């Protein structure tokens, strides 16, 4: 597809130039090019999404440190024992949706209340929910997916061939009072537990590139440039007129849309002289627009995995065999269809009413240090859903064009640690239910087992990790908010013809996983852009 589409179309001038073919960028390229009278360019730094591990759900972690991964590294984290932490991000068609764990979890309706309070009803739950539904196509039993759309480009499927112990996890949740969400996790309140809804079609990954981009690539008015890194946005007389890339300038008659992700988009703004003036000067970049919020308000979901030795066979621990490969290729069955994170639960740390602040992920295999261990064990990942801590992305003064400096600021607010510890205690209780107790024996490293709070904090700092959900670095906000980078229509403040549309615009992180909201943002943005004409 790509060679032809790279040369197809007019010279180097387009109506819209979309930067980044990730979760949001694929949506924008597809939706904007629905109008045959406009010419759209989609510019992606990575290559085509042909690596077979992209298709194979189980293999998502094998894509880390490959050509499909930017493989960022954070700055040393004081809250995490001084560690520099590995931050993978997708670098191929589909972006992070081509390397992620395929979990489709839009979040809670309460997630969007502060957004609407900040910028108005364009971003209320009532306003955004139709965009989730517009993107979804439920592939499971019609009686068990009532909260999902059925006609969108993205297939949402239940696990194709789940491990038998996943049902035991749901039973354990029922024992501690969590309801099973039999209609899926797309409704306004996803407090409870469920098998994980997945971006899969018949057991293989279904990325944003599969759902949105590939069908649109047949259109003569869409040109997709792969292996083309954008270096900066060209701003002339206060207007974005195009982007400077590896292959020269790509001009935009109407708009440039940055969908380069929560790291890439603020990085590109800063490289274009848009950001905190002092920081830009310190990195040797001439400021063109003062926008101090660029790169600030970085939020992420932190996780720690409780791992227990298994007393029963664990098929996923021996997943990648020739026989399982053959089964996957021929029938799309077996452990290679597993995304590893087969079920989830959402709950509140204080046990009270209201939206959840903690999540559990059930994995029927030990998952640690961004990969699996081929040992019989089970993992309960605990996730802090609503961190108060904020981090920041800045230019590297030594090499502004190189990777930016990523400071997630984990546990810079103490309250986050308190909530997180209560989640870990909850997970310990879950392993001790009648449903799960017979499946496990002792703790497996690096989980130390039940220890006092001081030792638990030490374990968190030494082994806690990213769940790969950075957001907020080009935050949306109202007029007069000095930290706002884009307005409610995602227009970059102080520059005409420039928007940001991806996970970076989220004012606050959602209580789910961030691919679905990034797709929703792409859908919402495409309507806002079309309304502007
Ligand atoms: C390992 C991993 C597992 C995850 N698991 C899940 C999950 O199971 N469920 C879930 O909901 N979320 C998950 N996420 C997070 C989710 O995938 C992301 O939040 C979401 O895809 C972000 O979408 P985006 O459009 O903001 O950015 P991305 O999808 O990251 O897209 C950005 C694109 O821009 C390109 N780009 C960046 N800079 C430039 C440049 N200068 N020039 C040209 N192109 C550029 C990138 O190469 C990339 O293709 C996971 C992420 C990772 C990394």
TrEMBL record:
Listed InterPro entries: FAD/NAD-bd_sf, GMC_OxRdtase, GMC_OxRdtase_N, GMC_OxRtase_C
Keyword list, A-Z: FAD, Flavoprotein
Nuclease listed as a keyword: no
Keyword Flavoprotein: yes
Pfam families reported for this sequence: GMC_oxred_C, GMC_oxred_N
Superkingdom field: Bacteria
Domain Glucose-methanol-choline oxidoreductase N-terminal span(s) in chain numbering: 261-275
Cofactor(s) essential for the protein: FAD
Membership in a protein family: Belongs to the GMC oxidoreductase family.
Name recorded for this polypeptide: GMC family oxidoreductase N-terminal domain-containing protein
Species for this entry: Streptomyces gobitricini
